[in-house]
Design brief:
19% strand
Length: 498
């Protein structure tokens, strides 16, 4: 898993660098080609103008011997193949190529500067009128060899630059990937040692970034556990330790939910014991994207709380790493998070324990909700206007049960559009499986209550109503499982009822 995660980060950094480099190189070559050809045309025009200027008097005086001197002067210029002086009908009066003298060329009636490229792509004819074409025109043939050689030299240098850039890109990508992965792996190994019972393992809290904050939070939790384990001598101290653990766990749940533009969000969680395994959060990825996660660890008490803390730590670490990479949100993989969670928990959790998770990314710009589930209860999407609800569910095995290959095959990701006044209802199975003394479960009442929503209720009022209704339903029956609810309502800035 370490190698796979490292490789993903490495490629995420390397590919953009290579694409930018290759694109820049191609643009540079095309630009240099255009510049070289433009300079070549400019030189051809200047030479033909010079021949035309020098040929004016000899043509006016019909002193063709002077034309030979003119031609001899220009033919000495670099890359000049032949020089011709023709009358206005295209008949060669004088030329450096004696074989075509007095012959008629395809060129005639040239009134302005022009150029023609031969079919063999090695010589270009440049034509310019003498005295506006009244006395004929001149032709200079230039070889493209030097221009092509210069362009080839630039291309070779570009290839050398590309090779060096690729080498540097590999080195930079390796170093950055290593700097990202190393602290996460260290924190993960530290958690493993703590989970194995080594509470004295040192935790590096020197970093000042999000990983450092996570390490300090984990260290504080570990230190609190150590502090109360050392004082544990009797039942009274055990109860105090459980109360502290409950406080620590409560601190890991969000104290305040983020402000999400265009949405009203509320949540509530109640443990069956002092501490439990339910967890939820609304995590800001950027200004337009928010991750909503809700999960449930099998069992209750301290083991469930520890696994709950581990699952949330892994999720926070992956999100912090994604923020650091500065990649686009489309590259953020929900399935990848679930795979990492399963791989870690499968090797660390005791048998018969597992974690169910439902997670999704809400984009407030296009109101798209991309989601995936790992064995968790479906989210209910309800619209009061149509009075219809939809269960948002995907395939997916619970984390920590099956091996990586089989687990990956069970995963699925879907997307749904959130409309005005839509309600998204997240719950743990403690809600639907809550039962009264007659063993009647609350599930059908839960769906019925959601279907009663009129559209004017706030998310907070929905959560309060459902919690109170569950308590009334079970009456005095003891709470058998943790209860967690999250409500997200799509709004458009309208006022919410108190």
């Amino acid at each position: 898993m370490k190698r796979s995660f490292f490789l993903k980060i490495f490629l995420l950094i390397l590919f953009p660098l290579l694409i930018i480099m290759l694109t820049a190189s191609l643009v540079f070559i095309l630009y240099q080609r255009a510049i070289s050809f433009s300079e070549f045309l400019t030189r051809g025009e200047l030479l033909t103008k010079q021949v035309a200027h020098l040929a004016e008097n000899p043509l006016l005086e019909e002193s063709y011997y002077d034309l030979i001197d003119t031609i001899d002067t220009i033919i000495k210029e670099k890359d000049v193949v032949h020089v011709h002086v023709m009358d206005r009908n295209g008949v060669v009066i004088e030329s450096s190529n004696h074989k075509i003298r007095r012959q008629k060329t395809p060129h005639s009636l040239v009134n302005t500067f022009t150029w023609e490229e031969l079919e063999d792509n090695t010589v270009i004819h440049f034509l310019y009128p003498v005295l506006g074409g009244a006395k004929g025109f001149t032709c200079v043939e230039l070889s493209k060899k030097r221009m092509n050689n210069e362009l080839n030299r630039i291309i070779i240098m570009t290839y050398i630059f590309i090779f060096l850039f690729i080498c540097i890109s590999f080195l930079i990508s390796f170093l950055i990937s290593r700097s990202i992965i190393k602290p996460i792996n260290i924190l993960k190994d530290t958690f493993k040692q703590v989970a194995d019972g080594n509470l004295n393992v040192p935790i590096d809290t020197s970093r000042t970034d999000e990983i450092g904050n996570l390490a300090r939070s984990f260290a504080r939790t570990r230190d609190e556990i150590i502090k109360y384990i050392e004082k544990l001598k009797d039942k009274e101290r055990m109860e105090k330790e459980l109360e502290m653990a409950a406080s620590v766990q409560k601190n890991m749940l969000p104290g305040e939910l983020p402000d999400v533009s265009g949405y009203d969000i509320a949540a509530g969680s109640f443990m069956a014991r002092e501490i439990g395994g339910d967890f939820y959060d609304v995590i800001t990825i950027d200004n337009e994207n928010f991750m909503i996660v809700i999960g449930d660890v099998s069992g209750k008490g301290m083991p469930a709380a520890l696994y709950m803390s581990a699952a949330m730590s892994i999720i926070y670490g992956i999100i912090f790493d994604f923020k650091f990479s500065r990649e686009t949100i489309s590259s953020f993989s929900l399935l990848g998070i679930l795979e990492i969670l399963n791989n870690v928990l499968k090797t660390k959790m005791r048998r018969a324990s597992f974690v169910t998770i439902f997670m999704g990314i809400l984009n407030t710009k296009n109101n798209q909700f991309r989601y995936s589930s790992s064995g968790h209860d479906p989210v209910i999407l309800f619209n009061p206007k149509t009075d219809r609800y939809e269960e948002l569910k995907t395939f997916g095995q619970s984390c920590g049960i099956v091996k990586a290959g089989l687990f990956k095959k069970t995963l699925e990701e879907k997307t749904v559009t959130i409309k005005h006044n839509d309600y998204l209802m997240f719950n743990s199975d403690g809600v639907t499986e809550a039962h009264n003394k007659n063993k009647d479960q609350y599930k059908k009442h839960y769906i019925a209550n959601i279907s009663k929503i009129q559209g004017e209720e706030s998310a907070e009022s929905i959560i309060s109503f459902l919690i109170n209704d569950i308590r009334d339903f079970v009456n005095k029956e003891p709470q058998h499982d943790d209860i967690t609810l999250v409500c997200i309502k799509k709004i458009s800035g309208e006022s919410l009822e108190a």
